[in-house]
Amino acid sequence: MKKFLVVEDSPIVVKIIKHIAKLDPSLRFDIAASFDEAKTLLNTNGPESYLAAVIDLNLPDAPDGEVVDHTLSLKIPTIVLTGTFDEKKRDEMLQKPIVDYVVKESRFSYEYVLKLIHRLHKNQHIKVLVVDDSKTSRNIINAMLKPHLYQLLEAEDGQQALDLINKDPSIKLLITDYNMPVMNGFDLVKNIRREVNKNALIIIGLSTQGSEGLSAKFIKNGANDFLYKPFSHEELHCRIIHNIEAMEHLETIQKTVHQDHVTGIFNRRYFYEKGCESLHLSQTSNTPTCLALIGIDHFKKINDEYGHEAGDQVLKETARLLEQVFNRFIFARMGGAEFCVLLSGLDINKAGTLMENFRELIEDHIIMLDNGSTTITISAGVALNLNNTLDQLMNEANRQLYNAKESGRNQVCIAD
């Protein structure tokens, strides 16, 4: 993560920020006690070195927030800190393209500022699509979002938006007006929700005051949230953050559910969920598909000789090589010392050749342990899908894996 710049003349505030930031090693920052010091740092390091600036409004050489105007002119996302709440000053600051206006009330205020910096770092990877037939309205919304470093896209109507979403599934947030030509916002939501659920794409509906019942209609049919125009920068920001953090929290839970706790790759549960879907698609499209079941040879001996931590290192390194070779396929650790790969698009000969190449890679690979190094071999069984269920395909691959082990290990057996 890039550094952030703190411009603050209070030693107590600086001490608090340092203490809280120390709890997170990813947070790096420079501190300036005056406007002059800030300009020196910016000139020396360059404004592009800083992810954000945290600016005290009242400095001895900049008593009226001059530093804020300076960092904004350099295109640095700026968070304003102030010791006293002044409604007039707050309104004045919020008219500028700042990230947020924070009063120094307690430790929570500084924790909130650091949370904002983390949010800015994450936002750089979030695509937001703004849909409105009014160029002026799109410009207003984009001006509110730009300081938060989102990747911004635009569409003039619902059909344009739908085409963009179909082309780019990485779009995470859609902000759409209701009243538009070609396809209105409500029809856009209904069309999107036929294919994309609320957990994969956040939709926030917009409309002018007076559209009675429209907010409920939007949400009942798939929008995550709704705002009436006109809305403030803070209101839009809070609604967006609330929805994005809910999405990220769910993604974390799903990742935990589907991730093997030792190797970090996908687990058996994920393999069965995605494998069944992939197998069904391959059968309907008449695409050849094979399944390979892989077992580390004499894994118990590794645990007995080197210890269970070494065994975990062997599993992790095997998983890393598996990911390196088979990253375009569905693969997972199935439990113990066994891994599985669903080789969609490959016939039995190509699947066997690829698995043999992987066996040779493993055999030649040295695995570094805490107290030395070791080498391992693998056995593998490969089966071709003949309109099987995933369980049937797994059972056949398991029979071939058993044959490979019974025949002396360190080999690949392929079903006839």
Task: Write down how many β-strands occur, each being a DSSP E stretch of 2 or more residues.
Answer: 17
Category from helices, strands and their pairing: alpha/beta
Radius of gyration of CA atoms, rounded to a whole number: 28 Å
Summed up, the domain count is: 3
**Percent of residues in β-strands:** 15-25%
**Approximate helicity band:** 40-55%
CATH top level label of the largest domain: Alpha Beta
- Average pLDDT, rounded to a whole number, is 94
Number of helices: 15
Would you give the CATH topology of the largest domain?
Alpha-Beta Plaits
C-alpha geometry: flat
CATH architecture assignment name of the largest domain: 2-Layer Sandwich
Largest sheet: 5 strands, parallel
Distance between the termini: 53 Å
Low-confidence stretches: none
CATH superfamily of the largest domain: Reverse transcriptase/Diguanylate cyclase domain
The order of strands across the largest sheet is 2-1-3-4-5
InterPro entries: CheY-like_superfamily, Diguanylate_Cyclase, GGDEF_dom, Nucleotide_cyclase, Rev_trsase/Diguanyl_cyclase, Sig_transdc_resp-reg_receiver
Catalytic activity: 2 GTP = 3',3'-c-di-GMP + 2 diphosphate
Organism: Alkalimarinus alittae
GO molecular function, one term: diguanylate cyclase activity
Secondary-structure map with pairings?
Layout: E1 3-7, H1 11-22, E2 29-32, H2 35-45, E3 50-56, H3 66-73, E4 78-82, H4 87-94, E5 100-103, H5 107-123, E6 127-131, H6 135-145, E7 151-155, H7 158-167, E8 171-177, H8 185-193, E9 202-208, H9 214-220, E10 225-229, H10 233-258, H11 268-284, E11 289-296, H12 299-306, H13 308-326, E12 330-335, E13 338-344, H14 348-364, E14 367-369, E15 372-374, E16 378-384, H15 390-406, E17 412-414
Parallel strand pairs: 1-2, 1-3, 3-4, 4-5, 6-7, 6-8, 8-9, 9-10, 16-17
Antiparallel strand pairs: 11-13, 11-16, 12-13, 14-15
Helix pairs in contact: 1-5, 7-8, 12-13
